[in-house]
């Protein structure tokens, strides 16, 4: 019986060893599978964030370019609108000479210029204003030497001059006009957005 007991004990040990080896193999396989799952999940997360990050960066670049293009288009439209406004003002100023109020305007421009440069000796005007200038010149020598929508230029012997033409006044007023135009446009846009 000892042999049967011995064989039974060996079989029991072998079964226990097989069970332990099976458990270890199963545990090792489970660990390998878990490690593979973890690596797969990490890789999937990495792959998922990389394209998303790139896509976000691409989208942000596209938005930035679109904002720049939109800003350029708005600036261009504003500049075109202001240029149109100036063209209208220029057209009106170019026609002022034909208005009934022009002689009074010319008289005011001359008085303003003489007050600023009382030692002037020469009055320069557009040839179309020669008759009017001759009436108002007083002691000034009149020269029909300007090409202007209207207005005049006074000159001294020492070379100082005052140019008081409609073109010059518009040029001096342009920064102020541009600022007012921008504010008015901003208010109109703001009111339209509400």
Beta-strand residue fraction? 5-15%
**Corresponding CATH superfamily of the domain at 100-164:** ATP synthase, E subunit, C-terminal
Distance between the termini: 104 Å
The helix content is over 70%
Give the beta-strand count.
Answer: 4
Shape label:
rod-shaped
Largest sheet properties: 4 strands, mixed
User: Which CATH class of the domain at 100-164 is shown?
Assistant: Alpha Beta
Could you state the order of secondary-structure elements as H and E?
Answer: HHEHEEEH
CATH architecture of the domain at 100-164: 2-Layer Sandwich
Q: Rg to the nearest angstrom?
A: 46 Å
Strand order of the largest sheet: 2-1-3-4
Query: Looking at CATH, which topology of the domain at 100-164 would you report?
Result: hypothetical protein PF0899 fold
Notes on the structure:
Helices cover 74% and strands 9% of the residues. The chain is built from four helices and four strands, in the order ααβαβββα. It has a four-stranded mixed beta sheet with strand order 2-1-3-4. The protein starts with a helix and ends with a helix. It is rod-shaped and about 135 Å long. It has a domain at 100-164: ATP synthase, E subunit, C-terminal (hypothetical protein PF0899 fold), CATH 3.30.2320. Helix 3 (130-136) links the parallel strand 1 and strand 2. It is α+β, with helices and mostly antiparallel strands and 194 residues long. The mean pLDDT is 83.
